[in-house]
Specification:
- The chain has 297 residues and is α/β, with parallel strands linked by helices.
- The protein contains twelve helices and ten strands.
- The strands form two sheets. Strands 3-2-1-4-5-6-10-7 form an eight-stranded mixed beta sheet, with helices on both faces. Strands 8-9 form a two-stranded antiparallel sheet.
- The longest helix is centred in the last third of the chain and has 16 residues.
- The relative contact order is 0.15.
- The chain binds beta-D-ribofuranose and calcium ion.
- Calcium ion binds next to helix 1.
Length: 297
């Protein structure tokens, strides 16, 4: 059976992605979760991840990773993230302090260890900044290149961004790390172009059974996300991270991929914009597969 690692910055849609991955236990084994800064500080992302796992009574090892982007020592959560995911990252929902603690091994060393052990049986899906993956790649390039499949929820190619008019959050949070990954690995990219086609609806939320703890948690965080993801509109709730996991496990959800070499701009005005790499447009083989269209039915 294939092995799966999720790299998360939990986050409401990350929480849904973790639970979606767990629900696919018949086809993939979730062997570990690595955490990073992003929607919240890394310590909070780790805590949220452990709390969600505990609520759903599953024992999956969690490895803490990057606290800040390449070249930075610290990270401050932007106000807009707090609006979307709540100050605690899970829509202000209160869950008990988790009994489990993160493993001693770092996220980077776990990624390297798992790549070595499982090689092309391993699928890695990044749902936050690409810092952990880029760090692992820098530390053990030949080992990380053995990973069977890497899917990243990142970027926007044909539509505007969600943190600035040109940048998507996960790319914006560490553009240099994204570029390092794009230069050295073959990755499948699931961006806003398709994740904005999978919105949670009021009908979806109504299906959760609020009479039990799990259902109440899911309904509450989904509602928070629905109400806050897009301040200017009357609804939000794009299932960015769950869609990336779904495509990683079942490529058929993506009905059109474009293969190309991508780069991320790192200069002030267009910082974080994902775009075709001009001097490598004709280079073959390509290093990135970007999902352009999905079957959202
Ligand atoms: C991405 O940014 C985060 O806020 C979400 O968890 C998702 O990974 C969407 O742009
Ligand atoms: Ca995320």
């Amino acid at each position: 059976m294939k092995k799966l690692i999720l790299d998360v910055d939990t986050g409401i849609d990350d929480a849904f992605a973790i639970l979606y991955a767990l629900s696919q236990y018949e086809q993939v084994e979730l062997i570990g979760i690595t955490t990073s800064f992003g929607n919240v500080l890394v310590q909070q992302a780790t805590k949220n991840t452990l709390q969600v796992l505990e609520l759903f009574e599953v024992d999956i090892p969690v490895y803490q990773g990057a606290a800040a982007s390449w070249g930075n020592q610290t990270y401050t959560v932007p106000d807009s993230f707090e609006r979307v995911h709540g100050r605690n990252g899970i829509g202000e929902y209160h869950l008990p302090i988790p009994r489990a603690t993160p493993k001693e091994l770092t996220a980077v060393d776990f990624l390297i260890e798992a790549a070595n052990k499982h090689q092309d049986e391993l699928i890695v899906v990044t749902l936050g900044p690409l810092t952990n993956l880029a760090d692992a790649l820098k530390k053990a390039p030949e080992t990380i290149k053995k990973i069977g499949k890497i899917v990243c929820m990142a970027g926007a190619l044909t539509i505007p961004g969600n943190i600035t008019s040109v940048a998507e959050v996960n790319v914006y949070n560490d553009a240099a790390a994204v570029n390092y990954v794009f230069e050295h690995l073959f990755v499948t990219v699931v961006g806003l172009d398709v994740t904005l086609q999978t919105m949670i609806t009021k009908q979806d939320i109504a299906r959760f059974d609020r009479k039990n703890k799990k259902g109440d948690f899911l309904a509450a965080i989904a509602e928070y996300y629905y109400q806050n993801e897009y301040a200017e509109q009357d609804y939000g709730g794009a299932l960015h991270d769950p869609l990336a996991v779904a495509i990683a496990l079942e490529e058929g959800f993506c009905t059109s991929f474009i293969e190309l070499n991508l780069t991320v701009e790192q200069t002030d005005q267009t910082y974080g914009r994902m775009i075709g790499k001009l001097d490598e447009l004709t280079l073959i083989p390509k290093r990135t597969r970007f999902c352009l269209q999905i079957d959202a039915t």
